[in-house]
Design a protein that fits this description.
The chain is mainly alpha-helical. The chain has one domain. The radius of gyration is 18 Å and the shape is flat.
Length: about 110
């Protein structure tokens, strides 16, 4: 049986890995020789930003709410709510661990 705590943890780790991967790709592309002199002018810069934001929001929404929505539609509302709350809690804990680690490493 999948416990809400375990599912929430997996969802939070999935989101953290997605965000880390996305940020790493952006940093790599930004420093690559191919894009070294690339300066997106108006309206290309805002368009690229908004498209990346929408893709990220959709991906994170699916990771966070996909399974709880499925449970909610199958009349398991309490379990769905517990999974969302555990996911938020685990994600907050991951954020705090990354924040404290960053402050200790670069302070």
């Amino acid at each position: 049986m999948k416990t809400p705590r375990a599912v929430g943890f997996l969802q939070a780790v999935g989101i953290a890995l997605y965000v880390s991967g996305f940020a790493s790709i952006i940093a790599f592309v930004e420093q690559s020789a191919f894009f070294k002199d690339f300066d997106p002018s108006f309206p290309l810069g805002p368009i690229m930003f908004l498209l990346a934001f929408i893709i990220s929001a959709t991906t994170c929404s699916l990771l966070m709410f996909g399974y709880p929505f499925y449970l909610f539609m199958h009349e398991k509302k309490k379990e769905a709510l517990h999974i969302v709350l555990w996911s938020v809690g685990w994600l907050a804990l991951i954020f705090l661990v990354v924040l404290v680690s960053t402050l200790l490493l670069f302070a």
